[in-house]
Amino acid sequence: MNKLVQVAGIIDAAEADMCIAQGADWLGFALRLPSGKDDIAEQDAAVIIKGLDAPHAGVLISYLTDAEEVSEFCRELGVVAVQLHGDVATEELRRLKEIRPELFVLKSLVVKEDNVDELLKLVDETHPYVDMYITDTFDPKTGAKGATGLTHDWSVSAELVRRSPKPLMMAGGLNPENVGDAIRTVRPAAVDAHTGLEGPDGRKDSAKVAKFVTEARRAFDDIA
Ligand SMILES: O=C(O)c1ccccc1N[C@@H]1O[C@H](COP(=O)(O)O)[C@@H](O)[C@H]1O
């Protein structure tokens, strides 16, 4: 699972096809968001996900916190991986691993101004039940914990990489211009972006996705 490049927030089949064509490995589908305003219908996401050929894969991004509900939804969608963005109890992570050991579980670590100790503790507690962590950036203005388009203090991400026994996907305000520096500084196993790959129309921009993938792969080779 090293050198993985994910594009998050896929909104339709054309966008999924374009991201795969430009070299993305995994595609993230944000569903059952608390706002109730998903960018894609669950049935449409399932069709795209089931049409992906390995090593490409669809990832459910969600704030769900109940292991049974997560497992059932992943089954319906046909995803091999889930990115849990909510405040999931350690017991629910343990339960998810118990009922779906084959499901690849990414747990978000939302970086705030002063919560590094809290995140390190979360890693210590949850790593037996997590396959990969993913950083993200908190937006204090809106309270949003995902797809904020904001970067955070990369020294925090680097500390999480050093502490975690499990690999870490770096995310939070990444774009084609900063992803290379991010990888060289933080040394993550994977990267992911949403907002920084969009054009003015809110759709993923083909040239931005291509450059993001190229820059990420070059930097991963540099740190290998
Ligand atoms: O992608 C989304 O729509 C999404 C929705 C809700 C929570 C998380 C979401 N995506 C994750 O957000 C970060 C990166 O976002 P950005 O590049 O800063 O815009 C990453 O973890 C995505 O997987």
UniProtKB/TrEMBL annotation:
It comes from the Bacteria. It catalyses: N-(5-phospho-beta-D-ribosyl)anthranilate = 1-(2-carboxyphenylamino)-1-deoxy-D-ribulose 5-phosphate. Coiled coil: none annotated. Its EC number is 5.3.1.24. Keywords: Amino-acid biosynthesis, Aromatic amino acid biosynthesis, Isomerase, Tryptophan biosynthesis. Pathway: Amino-acid biosynthesis; L-tryptophan biosynthesis; L-tryptophan from chorismate: step 3/5. The keyword Isomerase applies. GO terms for molecular function: phosphoribosylanthranilate isomerase activity. Pfam families: PRAI. Belongs to the TrpF family. This is N-(5'-phosphoribosyl)anthranilate isomerase.
